[in-house]
Automatic annotation (TrEMBL):
Domain of life: Bacteria
Pfam families according to UniProt: Fer4_12
Listed name of the protein: Radical SAM core domain-containing protein
Gene Ontology terms, MF aspect: 4 iron, 4 sulfur cluster binding; metal ion binding; oxidoreductase activity
Keyword vocabulary terms for this entry: 4Fe-4S, Iron, Iron-sulfur, Metal-binding, Oxidoreductase, S-adenosyl-L-methionine
UniProt xrefs under PANTHER family: PYRUVATE FORMATE-LYASE 2-ACTIVATING ENZYME, PYRUVATE FORMATE-LYASE-ACTIVATING ENZYME
Cofactors that this protein relies on: [4Fe-4S] cluster
PROSITE patterns: RADICAL_ACTIVATING, RADICAL_SAM
Length: 277
């Protein structure tokens, strides 16, 4: 039975598409943004949060349950810690399990005009695996949204997904730290495909200090993007990086540079919606 690697399911979301939604976060992403607020989704390989506050040895205590632990010279990995030092960042769920869970709020979706959103990471890398679930949600007349970088080199599978996905939130990777030589070409090609099919598309951008407004405006106009959601980069996920054993670097911009950036976009005729988390 095929299962999807889910890091979290959040109910009652209002920022991930129209209406009230349930957002499913999947592991894996074609990018590795160093400010990602969901670092546990960056890679498809198994990963674990390590909470040293729960470690008996770190507290200076002793327990017979710890004798075999790798931290005590044994061979048991931290994933087997009986005190919960290690916690898997994701859980494999079947299409059937996810369907049952996501349909819990069907009445809420219908009343609010909401539905289910797939995020991550970037669910575009799992799109073929998502088809059975998307098919079931379509049968239940559930509105589906995907938040994606639109960096997908398989245009055929992208076109196939259009019949299941009602709304596309495109996370633009315009930061210099995310430079990828073929990104603009791949994303622009896919965007053209979706627009030709009349797909509902909105755009989102995380602002970091290194971004220059003139350059961003030029790229937005080249893409024909006249409306944009902007999120000021934050450091709310710092504790996650610590628990994952990953380095954390601050990319939080100054208030002035952020407001100057927003002003520049507005002056250039771009309709900006500021996202606040």
């Amino acid at each position: 039975m095929k299962r999807l690697d889910v890091t979290a399911i959040q109910r009652g979301c209002v920022y991930d598409g129209t209406g009230v939604r349930t957002t499913v976060f999947l592991k894996g992403c074609p990018f590795s943004c160093p400010w990602c607020c969901n670092p546990e989704t960056l890679y498809t390989s198994p990963s674990f949060f390590i909470d040293n506050k729960k470690c008996i040895k770190e507290k200076g205590w002793d327990s017979p349950l710890c004798k075999k632990c790798i931290r005590k010279g044994g061979f048991e990995p931290l994933e087997h810690c009986p005190f919960g030092v290690s916690e898997a960042t994701s859980h494999p769920l079947s299409v059937e399990e996810l369907t049952v869970y996501l349909l819990r709020d069907k009445s809420v979706y219908q009343l609010s005009g909401g539905g289910v959103t797939f995020s991550g990471g970037d669910p575009i890398i799992h799109i073929s695996e998502l088809f059975p679930l998307l098919e079931k949600l379509k049968e239940e007349q559930i509105h589906c949204t995907i938040e994606t970088t639109l960096y997908c080199k398989d245009s055929a599978i992208l076109l196939e997904s259009v019949s299941y996905i009602n709304e596309w939130i495109v996370d633009l990777k315009f930061q210099k730290e995310n430079y990828r030589e073929d990104y603009d070409d791949v994303m622009t090609f896919n965007l053209r495909l979706l627009r030709n099919l009349g797909v509902n598309i909105s755009f989102r951008l995380v602002f970091v200090e290194s971004m220059e407004a003139d350059e961003i405006v030029e790229r937005l106009k080249k893409l024909g993007v006249l409306s944009l959601e902007v999120l000021k980069c934050h450091a709310l996920a710092e504790s996650k990086y610590t628990k994952l054993g990953l380095p954390f670097r601050h990319y939080v911009p100054s208030t002035k540079s952020y407001l100057d950036f927003i002003t520049a976009l507005l002056m250039a005729g771009v309709d900006v919606k500021e996202l606040a988390l």
